[in-house]
Write a structure and sequence with these properties.
Length: 564
Amino acid sequence: MRRLQATLDRIDRKGYGAYRDLAGSYDLGSFTLFVDRVQRDPFAPPSLVRLRTEENGFAPDLFENPVRRVAFEDFLTRRVEEAIRGVVRGSRGSGGSGRVEVQRPSQVVLPRTAMVVKPDYVEARLAVGLPARGRTVDARAARTVLLEELPEVARRSLTPEGVREGQARGHVETVEDARYLRGLLPGLGLVAFVADGAVLPRESGASDRPLREGAVPFESPEEFRVALDLPNRGSLSGMGIPEGVTLVAGGGFHGKSTLLSALSWGVYDHVPGDGREYVVARGDAVKVRAEDGRSISGVDISAMIGELPGGRSTEDFSTPNASGSTSQAANIAEALEVGTSLLLVDEDTSATNFMIRDERMRELVRREPISPFIDLVRPLHRSLGVSTVVVVGGVGDYLDVADRVILLEDYAPSDATPRAHEVTRVFPPRAPLAERAVRPPRGRRILASSVDLGRGGRGRETARSRGLHAVELGRERVDLSSVEQLAEAGQTEAVARLIGRFVAAGGVREMRGLVEEALATVSKGGLGELGGFRGHPGEMSLPRAQEVAAAINRIRSIRVVPDT
Ligand code: ADP
Ligand code: MG
């Protein structure tokens, strides 16, 4: 502590660069402060520090296995965030002076670099704007941040004295139950489960928090109700969505997209109070949509789209500018390539000509390369074991191909399957449906050398995230705004670094193997493996294989060779 104080006294009012002398570690009594990276100036990205407690005094059951540990780390990260809000005065001085930040968790629980719980210590990774007056060191303010505020943050959020253990245990047990619940799905022949009482709608289009006022809790139709037992919570009931083709129908604004979106987030575990704690889907579920303008590289979309104008084959389809339908077809083929057992499709974000073609158009337009998705959903399940939940308000033809129909009225679901059968008897399918077989799309091998990490202004190679929805690779900015199941920016950062590592390693790698291997390495050694400064890895969260592949697939320069 004295050493830190002495250094601060010595560099007070010197040029900001003098802060460099702070790098190192300091014993502050009940914890150690590591200053891993010192920012160059007050306006640069903040300095990186770690707070490590002397011991881990928490009850060992809170972190006794990997699932519980990740949940407990998530819990503590949120306590750090709270403590910062309560303790740190915030901006004082120029640039980011005096700000203290921790990686901001979304509504889902993920392995993150922000927090490490070990049997003998707890460590939080933070970013601190070292205070400046103009461009000179403000030692007094720095002393307040480092020697008063940080210790208080640590006391409130990293020690058993500052944290409510009952709340922590509730957090951990909720996550453990959700995991368990998701694990039950295949054995029950289900692709998803929505608990009775779940709150699906969100606060707003811009907020993933639960809608507070006027939310109608979910209540399963009797016909789909499944009762289960969870290890911590005990009995739970809700709607089970079986494998096969499930149609979600209903009038506009009756909650269809909200239900589908909740299912798409069901691949992750949620924090207590989210409303979707017990809404789970198969962990490999992919929400697919149209994304015109995206680039496509060597994707086999032949199951969905036949020969294109000019005799272009679609087994190895590339374009720098996909149409609505070709982009949606590629999104499906790519999801199958990396592995999925559940596709989630919403009419709101689909290309109409991809979803359906009516009899008149079949008659008028003879040279139509697209086999609409409606012809594909059953074969996808029969041949490949891939189930679909599709939201359709306006296209009754889907009634012919659905194994069941969930009807939403005023946000309340009912089983409309029998009624749908009646309707199809009265209005029979106009054209007999062609049941055909589909084969999985051909795999691809990716040429690492086709990605140029560039030499930016400083001659460095770049592979980093820009917020939640973009990755910067050299001069290329990869647009991920249609990759809907990215939950938080930390995942995007991890995706960027994984791509950076793949490019650095070079060679030609088969997509699925590449992604699986990359994630296996990370799950063994931790996200910290992906680089950082000294002990501070930066802000990362674990992505899924589906999102890593999605990012690679959207690199415009990527070149592939078909798998042989
Ligand atoms: P649809 O896709 O059927 O047109 P949405 O899912 O977009 O409808 O929902 C329409 C509106 O209703 C949204 O603002 C959504 O937040 C809200 N909403 C959805 N489900 C519920 C619910 N269970 N309780 C209250 N509001 C809901
Ligand atoms: Mg909708």
